[in-house]
């Protein structure tokens, strides 16, 4: 039986039953050998940071990662539970590789490993090297002596440094007068968010703290999350409700009515707030970005932070001054330093939930407008997205490939929309119909799911189109 473990759009992921044990040890050993081979380990004096989210399986997997690094002759530092961007920020700041144990937003029966080199997130070439070392090492068991190896602890408070990054840029009192609900659930950043926005002058109202892990997917919200937000907004006078996914690299933001903003709109608000002249975003982000006129240049990529990072790097080489990348899931990556008067926010080319949360809140204060009005200024098309769960990847790929290659099949499927105007196959298949509506079918890179994204003139039509798209996908994959 094939293993569920594989590299997707965000690191190595799979079932806990298949990761927690020899595989976690073996893949981390492979990562360590890659670091030693390319000289990164020597440059970092052998130090590798290890962090984790709040899943029940994460502490034991993190312990295996530390053991693998120690067994390789490196010096792991156990950083405990903290946001992925906080770990990445410290690593990039001091040139240290890192491993984050997290499954992000996927169900608790799954988990994963995110690997970082000194320069930041690993790229596809690094993935290939890790897989090659994994095969070469062919580890079949965790050595008994490795299980007893102890990791060190960092001398610097990583969370304090992460909070200082934003407190120094925005300044004390930047959010004075705001009342912000913080949906805590099982986010690893649930306390950090409260502390951060209170330090900037807002009043934080903690909400919905969970005692067990909840897989909050910012790109496919659960109905109960939407109901909760509306209830909280109705019970209290809130300017916004903010949250993140499990490892805090994707934000979740609602306006004062409890209506959640889509991630690409959050990204656009963030980019404009930071004065970006170039934005880099995947094909799944709203097609109105180009028409908004808010940005000098819009660069489109495949889904996944490695592709956004690659696009930001290219924009930097082309002379862009202020570069912001973001994804439809809301994750924002800062591709360049940002200057605001005498304050500077250093580049952080990895997904970060805190920056868009703070930018959205700051925009409410700076513009003296509610968040829903700020969002409407971008004139986004109504959009919706969801997923078919438990769809084998090979079935998703076969369906999308048939759509792309069989023109008769595509024409038949799209006939209710008046036919096909154009299509983009950079990532899955994004079809623009002759009536201007958009339907995008994309196999997930992280789980056995088929994602469906749509755009239409009204929210009601978008929901109807999404329902139709999911039904079509189900008919051809089940």
From TrEMBL:
SUPFAM superfamilies: Phosphoglucomutase, C-terminal domain, Phosphoglucomutase, first 3 domains. The keyword Isomerase applies. Residues 5-131, 164-258, 263-375 form the Alpha-D-phosphohexomutase alpha/beta/alpha domain. PROSITE patterns: PGM_PMM. It comes from the Bacteria. GO terms for molecular function: magnesium ion binding; phosphoglucosamine mutase activity; phosphomannomutase activity. Residues 420-465 form the Alpha-D-phosphohexomutase C-terminal domain. One of its GO terms (cellular component) is cytosol. This is Phosphomannomutase. It comes from Microvirga tunisiensis.
């Amino acid at each position: 039986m094939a293993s569920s473990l594989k590299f997707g759009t965000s690191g190595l992921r799979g079932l806990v039953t298949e990761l927690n044990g020899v595989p976690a040890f073996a893949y981390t050993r492979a990562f360590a050998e890659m670091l030693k081979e390319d000289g990164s380990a020597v440059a970092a004096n052998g130090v590798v940071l290890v962090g984790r989210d709040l899943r029940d399986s994460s502490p034991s997997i993190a312990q295996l990662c530390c053991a693998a690094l120690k067994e390789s002759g490196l010096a792991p530092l156990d950083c405990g539970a903290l946001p992925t961007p906080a770990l990445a920020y410290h690593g990039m700041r001091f040139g240290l590789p890192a491993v984050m144990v997290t499954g992000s937003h996927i169900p608790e029966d799954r988990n994963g490993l995110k690997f970082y080199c000194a320069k930041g997130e690993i790229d596809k070439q690094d993935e290939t090297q890790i897989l090659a070392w994994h095969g070469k090492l062919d580890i079949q068991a965790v050595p008994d002596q490795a299980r007893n190896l102890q990791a060190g602890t960092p001398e610097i408070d990583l969370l304090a440094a992460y909070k200082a990054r934003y407190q120094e840029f925005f300044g004390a009192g930047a959010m004075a007068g705001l009342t912000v609900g913080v949906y805590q659930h099982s986010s690893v950043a649930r306390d950090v968010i409260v502390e951060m926005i209170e330090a900037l002058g807002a009043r934080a109202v903690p909400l919905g703290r969970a005692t067990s892990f909840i897989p909050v997917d910012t790109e496919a919200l659960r109905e109960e999350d939407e109901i909760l937000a509306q209830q909280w907004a109705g019970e209290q006078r809130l300017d916004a409700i903010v949250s993140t996914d499990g490892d805090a690299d994707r934000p979740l933001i609602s306006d004062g009515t409890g209506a959640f903003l889509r991630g690409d709109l959050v990204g656009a608000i963030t980019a404009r707030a930071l004065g970006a002249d170039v934005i880099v975003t995947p094909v799944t982000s709203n097609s109105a970005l180009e028409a908004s006129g808010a940005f000098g240049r819009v660069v489109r990529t495949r889904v996944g932070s490695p592709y956004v990072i690659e696009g930001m790097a290219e924009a930097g080489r082309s002379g862009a001054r202020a570069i912001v990348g973001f994804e439809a899931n809301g994750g924002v990556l800062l591709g360049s330093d940002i200057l605001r008067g005498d304050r500077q926010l250093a580049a952080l080319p990895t997904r970060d939930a805190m920056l868009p949360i703070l930018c959205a809140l700051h925009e409410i204060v700076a513009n003296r407008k509610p968040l829903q009005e700020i969002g409407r200024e971008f004139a986004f098309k109504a959009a919706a997205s969801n997923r078919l769960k438990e769809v084998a990847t090979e079935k998703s790929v076969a369906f999308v490939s048939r759509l792309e290659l069989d023109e008769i099949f595509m024409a038949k499927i799209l006939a209710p929309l008046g036919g096909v105007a154009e299509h983009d196959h950079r990532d899955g298949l994004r079809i623009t119909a002759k009536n201007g509506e958009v339907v995008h079918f994309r196999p997930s890179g992280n789980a056995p799911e088929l994602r469906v994204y749509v755009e239409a003139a009204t929210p009601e039509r978008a929901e109807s189109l999404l329902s139709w798209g999911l039904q079509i996908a189900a008919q051809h994959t089940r």
